[in-house]
Design brief:
- Helices cover about 45% and strands about 5% of the residues.
- The protein has a domain at about 1-90 and about 160-185.
- Helix 1 runs antiparallel to helix 2.
- It is mainly alpha-helical.
Length: about 280
């Protein structure tokens, strides 16, 4: 599992080093908060003595406070926001940053009315036995009459309650501040919540909620799709994955048109393809 690439540490943050990254942010917040209090007390003292002659204060100290105080406050604010965002994504919702972007993408597709059809098509493809008369009727209603809510169609399968998420990604509580504390697991296989379990006799909505993540197949499900291009695999936990292989001529295309076997372009990796 990869969360994001950190430009501060020039390192990718994933499952194994995620607790180290949060501890890194936490101690930055602690130290900058202490410095903020010290600077605030000193600035308040100088402000109280502002009517005294200037030679009572060193110019170097005033210059240092003028520069370092806003800089320290900026670091404290930005790192606190980053820390809270990480807690919100990973601990509260059980998602990595990349998976949060996937959820935002799915919400955009849902709001534009393009997601429901994709989810139904993927349900028929992954669970062909669920294509019963009643489920077909329900699918037709979803597409024409009844408009379900987003959370009735999309379930993130690796999200549990706050405490379980914290233990899963940070390890035992007594190791959260321990420099060598790491989570249990290999970063490749994760437990799934009960909503994601497939039951053949369930309703169409339950079948859609049990689709593997991302439920629409991701970008690769819309780029190139014919009979010989689809690769279906199952991981060790039994989760079915859908990937679409693209034509080989993509390997020799220009920077603007290049893509790999999974439909990813250079732009997806942060490369500015417009630069010469």
């Amino acid at each position: 599992m990869m969360d994001h690439h950190c430009p501060w540490t020039m390192n990718c943050v994933g499952f194994a080093n995620y607790p180290h990254f949060l501890r890194f942010l936490f101690w930055i917040i602690v130290t900058t908060s202490v410095l903020f209090c010290i600077q605030a007390k000193r600035i308040y003292f100088i402000w109280q003595q502002r009517h005294l002659p200037g030679y009572f204060f060193k110019k170097s100290e005033l210059i240092f406070l003028t520069i370092s105080s806003p800089l320290n406050s900026f670091v404290l604010l930005t790192i606190t926001i980053l820390f809270l965002r990480c807690l919100f994504n990973q601990i509260l919702n059980g998602r990595s940053q990349i998976e949060s972007w996937d959820m935002d993408r799915l919400e955009s597709l849902f709001n534009s009315g393009r997601l429901t059809q994709k989810l139904i098509d993927n349900t028929w493809r992954i669970y062909p036995e669920s294509r019963s008369f009643q489920n077909k009727k329900d699918a037709e209603e979803h597409l024409t009459k009844k408009r379900p809510r987003f959370d009735e169609l999309v379930n993130f399968p690796y999200d549990f309650d706050l405490y379980t998420n914290a233990l899963l990604y940070l390890g035992p509580i007594h190791l959260w501040l321990w420099p060598y504390g790491v989570p249990k697991g290999d970063g490749n296989n994760f437990p799934k919540n009960d909503i994601s379990k497939y039951e053949a006799n369930s309703s169409l909505e339950d079948h859609i909620l049990s689709l593997p993540w991302p439920p629409d197949g991701g970008k690769t499900n819309t780029v190139f799709n014919h009979g010989s291009s689809t690769i279906e695999m199952r991981n060790e936990s039994g989760e079915q994955l859908i990937r679409t292989r693209l034509p080989q001529n993509g390997r020799h295309a220009s920077r603007e048109k290049w893509y790999n076997d999974w439909g990813e372009s250079l732009d997806d990796f942060g490369v500015d393809v417009d630069m010469e």
